[in-house]
Every structure is written in structure tokens, then in C-alpha cells.
Amino acid sequence: MSESNFEEVIHEIIFDSPAGEIKEVYDSLITIVGENSKDTLLNVIEQYNVKNNIPIDVDGNKVLLSENNKDGASRYFDPIIGVSFTVDHLNRKGLDVETHQAKGFTDDHKKLYQSILDYTVNAYPGNVTIAVYPITEESTEEATKLEIIISSTKYNPGNFWNGDWRSKYIYDIASKQLTGNIDVQIHYYEDGNVSFKSNKKIEENSVNDVLNTISTIEKGFENSLDVSFTELNEKQFKSLRRRLPITRSKINWGKAIGNYRLGKDAAEGA
């Protein structure tokens, strides 16, 4: 296999990794491909973390990674706690922390951050991390757009399931247009392997109240998921079951249980 094809395969495997399981995927891959491919794996994991806005622990604070909070080639920044840092992408930790003044980040942006934080406290279960990052013009260093990210993760590997919600928006300050995506991923793997993914593309114009618009969008998406789950449970799953047992005859369960005393007979080896 050529080097380019190898990297493409690694990229595909890592980017398809279920929520909260990237470390296990890395351990499996390093066993297969060997330590010589460690740099390739870590490079792809960095891309994965940035694309999926993975929360990083920076001195006890959670900071979301993004293309819009990069500070040079290898550093990232957080405008709220006022730091920049490098990242251990495998263990999701911030290193080499330094003070940092984010360009174009104003008091109004801080207020928006706080209002979104207050909203998520009641709206989201699990571990919630949010970000508001300024997108600036190089000529003026003033923010023309804002990136708003909400990440909620619930990892429960002890019970064989993990899940996350990520909503990411770009708000154009001048045109008042809000665009973005909501992505949900759930993985359940006890005695099986079930993965659920859902997403919604967002485009809203003439947005004056960013928080209210986001809240309305996300409540609507959550309601649509509830409807989908009900449909899945009541219709789709039922269609997967046999309508009749292999004998082609319906079983009278009440009579069968009464006659054969299934539990007692099984316990006695009858």
C-alpha cells in the first residue's frame, strides 16, 4: 500500500470513530500498524479533534478546538480565560499555557458567551462546553463574524455507550445571517454494535436575537429526534421481527406458560 493510500485509510478509520472512543481506536491502530506510524496517527487525530470541536482540558478549564481559535501553526487560544496553549491531542490536554489577548473579542461577545452558557445549563445534560470565537479581518483586526459552538458529551463506556451533541454556528454581524450545523452521534455496543447519527443544516436570515434563534432551532431539532425515535421503535424495529415463529404458527403465550411452566421446568432441567 502506498503512503498516500495508507494515510487515506487511517483518516477514514479515525474520522469514523464513535464519540468518546478515539483513544481505544488509536491503541488498536498502533498495535496493527506499529510505532513507526505514530506521527501519522497523531496528525489525523489532531484533524479529527479540530473538525469535531473536541473539548480540551486547559488547567482545569474546558476549551473547544476549532479552525477559528488557532494561534499560529500549533497553538490555540481561548478568549474567555485569556490563554493560548499547545495540545496533547491524544490525551486531550492543553500544554505550554501562556496569557493571550484575543483580537476582536469585545465585551458584547463576552455577554453573548455568558447568555449561551446560562441557556445550556438548563437545556443540556452531560458535560457541556461552549465557545464564542471572533473571526476577524486582517486589515482591521475587528470581528466581522462570530463562531458559536455548543458541545455536550455523555460518555459511559462502563455501560457500553457514548454520545455527543455538537451545534456550530457562524453569525455574520453585518448581514445578521446565522448559518451552521447540528450533529448528534450515539454509539451503543453491548453485545452488538449500534451507531446512530443525525444532522441538521441551519440557515437563518435577519437574526437580531442570536440566543433566542439558537434555542428555537435546537428545540425544534430535539423534537424531530423524539418523533424519529418513536417511529423507529414502533414501526421500523417491529418490521425486523418475525411475524410468525419458524413453525409458522402463532404461540398462545398465556397457555404455553401455564402448561409448560417454562421457568420452573428450565430450572429443574425438565
TrEMBL record:
GO cellular component, one term: F-actin capping protein complex
Any Pfam family the entry gives: F-actin_cap_A
Domain of life (superkingdom): Eukaryota
Gene Ontology MF annotations: actin filament binding
Gene Ontology biological-process entries: actin cytoskeleton organization; barbed-end actin filament capping
Keywords associated with the record: Actin capping, Actin-binding
Gene3D superfamilies with a match to the protein in the record: F-actin capping protein, alpha subunit, F-actin capping protein, beta subunit
Assembly notes: Heterodimer of an alpha and a beta subunit.
Family: Belongs to the F-actin-capping protein alpha subunit family.
General function of this protein: F-actin-capping proteins bind in a Ca(2+)-independent manner to the fast growing ends of actin filaments (barbed end) thereby blocking the exchange of subunits at these ends. Unlike other capping proteins (such as gelsolin and severin), these proteins do not sever actin filaments.
Protein's name in the database: F-actin-capping protein subunit alpha
Source organism: Maudiozyma saulgeensis
